[in-house]
Amino acid sequence: MNDERQHKSLWTVTTPPRDFPSLPGDLEVEVAIIGGGIAGLTAAWLLKRAGKKVAVLEMHRVLSGQTGQTTAHLTELLDTPYTTLLKDFGEKGAHLAASSSRAAIEQIASLVETLAIDCGFTRVPGYRYAETEAELRELLHEVSAARQAGLLATFTKEVPLPFPVKGALRVEDQAVFHPRQYLLALADRIPGDGCHLFENTKVVDIHDGTPCRVVTEGGTVTAQAVVEATTTPLNRVAMHTKLYPYRTYSVAAPLEGPLEPGQYYDSRDPYHYIRTQQVDGVPYVIVGGEDHKVGSEEDTTSCFAALEAYTRDRFPVRRITHRWSGQVIEPADGLPYIGRNVGSRHVYVATGFSGTGMTFGTLAGMVVSDLILGNENPYAALYDAGRVKPKAGARDFIQENAEVAFRFVADRLSKPDGHHLADVAPGEGKILEVDGRKVAVYREEDGTPHAVSPVCTHLGCHVHWNNAERSWDCPCHGGRFSPTGRVLNGPAVKDLPSRKLPVK
Ligand SMILES: Cc1cc2nc3c(=O)[nH]c(=O)nc-3n(C[C@H](O)[C@H](O)[C@H](O)COP(=O)(O)OP(=O)(O)OC[C@H]3O[C@@H](n4cnc5c(N)ncnc54)[C@H](O)[C@@H]3O)c2cc1C
Ligand code: FES
């Protein structure tokens, strides 16, 4: 049966799959990198280029995580407004956040040029627009904060959108590209000269030490340093109180009328993110949004419906040709955590990229490779994974962790809706009760039912059914499992165990 996610991105369906081997047994390298997304592949390439022997360990296929599901705006307009960054990190911090995003865009541009990667990399302007007077007032503050942080930002009423807006923050020299074309070109260059890229190689444990030991299902990799580039780290608790998983949705549609190449963002909360891209000669508009806390939306197909309606309402399109969704990880104080893991000597993490993980993932590769190589990096202190900012994001910290605690208790105590096995329709998943114990039941299209434990193997919260992607999603830290319980997304590493099927 096909128990993979349902929706594939425009990037995935327009590039050929790759087939890297899995780890055949024990191995020794200088740096072990867990995760074949933008953060892991960038770190691997920069370290290999500097002469290190690296091994990338990917549990599924490279770029099958959030990087394959991205919309790939390369932007200095961060999810955390510059007004907030100035308040929480000071002028120097806001400046560094802006200049590090610029450095990441330029890092990608330089690799595209030096390696001659054909990925449609194009410089475009970015616009954050206001549709109401209240949004406009906030936007004007953001324009001056962005300028104070060093962005080439201006306010404009000339916004090349096919619907009326009150005005926009315009920022120059942002970029768009085809993320899989770019990153497959890096992935293809990793094997060789003592370096490796392994797929279908799940890391189940990491031991810090001299050397470190990275335990996989196929063997143990020993290394002087380990990079956890797994979207959200595998460690059990320390980082997870500071990371909040959100689901976000995207659609792509061929343009049937003019839309100036660019990036566009509305000012709603959650906001919509829009951009253009030419793929195989077809001009597309790509629209994302409808974000919600993982596991909090009963009917995730309604998020796609809302996004499609938004797209059809505003842009010259007739057919929505691609739909996909994924997760973004929000950091507690508004900036990612990149650097040595808390309490570790040789294990590095790269996480909390929000909706700008193309630049932050690239930056993570730059910062972590510099730390491992012993080079100075101007951004390392700002993104230090062990930093404590008690005031920044304090309200969110309390609310988000209270919600995790609530989910942990409430989902255990709640009674399932009294459904029986016969109520689970083909293609559907439901939580049922068998002999006083909850089970997560999924029925295949051909009618075959499967039952697994609903208790997430990370820290024990109960999973929720995601009907759009047909997966069991954990509301606490974003772990995801296939309908039959296979791990799709960390931080969980163990599958959901099978359970006895209800008799009726
Ligand atoms: C719909 C959507 C739109 C987005 N739009 C944008 C945008 O426009 N601009 C932008 O900058 N960012 C955007 N983002 C965010 C960005 O895509 C992500 O932040 C970024 O791709 C994360 O990269 P990563 O390398 O950290 O993680 P991933 O790409 O998720 O890679 C992590 C990898 O680690 C592997 N892994 C996990 N656990 C293990 C294990 N135990 N053993 C081995 N391997 C493991 C996973 O399989 C995965 O392949 C968007 C995200 C989504 C979902
Ligand atoms: S309890 Fe942490 S991801 Fe499920």
UniProtKB/TrEMBL annotation:
One of its GO terms (molecular function) is 2 iron, 2 sulfur cluster binding. InterPro entries: FAD-dep_OxRdtase, FAD/NAD-bd_sf, Rieske_2Fe-2S, Rieske_2Fe-2S_sf, Rieske_Fe-S_prot_C, YhfW_C. The keyword Metal-binding applies. It holds the Pfam family DAO. Residues 416-504 form the Rieske domain. Keywords: 2Fe-2S, Disulfide bond, Iron, Iron-sulfur, Metal-binding. This is Rieske family iron-sulfur cluster-binding protein. It comes from the Bacteria. Coiled coil: none annotated. One of its GO terms (cellular component) is cytoplasm. The gene is yhfW. Gene3D superfamilies: D-Amino Acid Oxidase, subunit A, domain 2, FAD/NAD(P)-binding domain, Rieske [2Fe-2S] iron-sulphur domain.
